[in-house]
Amino acid sequence: MNLTVNGKSATIEAQGNVSVLQLLDLLNVSQKEYVTVELNGDILDRESFAASPVQDGDTVEFLYFMGGGAL
Amino acid sequence: MKLTEDQINRYSRHILLKEVGGKGQKKLLEGKVLIIGAGGLGSPIALYLAAAGVGTIGIADADDVDVTNLQRQVIHFTPDVGKPKVISAKEKMQAINPDVEVRTYQEWVSAANIADMIADYDFVIDGTDNFAAKFLINDACVLGGKPYSHGGILQFDGQTMTVAPGQSPCYRCIFPEPPPKDAIPSCSQAGVIGVLPGVLGTIQATEAIKYLLGQGDLLTGRLLTYSALRMRFREIPFRKNPKCPICGEHPTITTLKDELDAMTVCDLGH
Question: What sections of the protein cross the membrane (chain A) (predicted)?
């Protein structure tokens, strides 16, 4: 399955359906508990990660908290 | 208001631009921008907005200048160590441009004071270093209909976006809730390369200036990310999130509250 992940093409070797939750593990995404996932332009609910399938050709963005600025 | 001869001289490189001109420079001089945070991001923002002739600039920060700030907070100088950051910032801003009125707020923003603080300004800039303040600024600006620029930095990476309430998605459309306290490292824990806030802060100041001028396209509906190590900018388009807790279809946040779980000791003024 070919995806675009954070602007780069990525190939996922997987049997059957892959959910967003599984994708986090397959891609070894950092800060899994806090990362925001945008799938084809839509921001997903954290609760829906397990039920959201990823399909060939999808565009996925992982968005991270960045809190610095003043200190 | 008519530009004086001194002003025509001082702002001549602005006035030459067809997107600015004398008319645009007057808009800047009549403009009011509030900068929350007088640190890494706030430093270039305050310096450039003052130099540009933004007529009224508010700057809010309760902190004093520390020697560890000087590696990146370029508005503060070595002799300023120990001085309130807002006073140190005001001195430099007025030295660059005595034309500008600088209002200082030597306090942390909170649910109790932020609505009053932002009310008089045209545009707000988030240059804070913690999620409690970042979410509070988003909420106050969305509820108050105040356009603002979000900015965040860590180590070698930064991100920024502009929020035009009612028209564009907000910070909570991407990040509905703050992370638990201490889940995400801060710059004081994880470090930050000193030039990074210069890049991000200058972009935020550009947004304020464009907003006041009414020129160009704001950074709305797009999260701009910057990696200094890879020297790469990326733009991630995003839409309004119908489930956004503050600007979605069924908002659950209708009044301002402090995100106590995201607060650090320093936010509480200790």
Answer: none
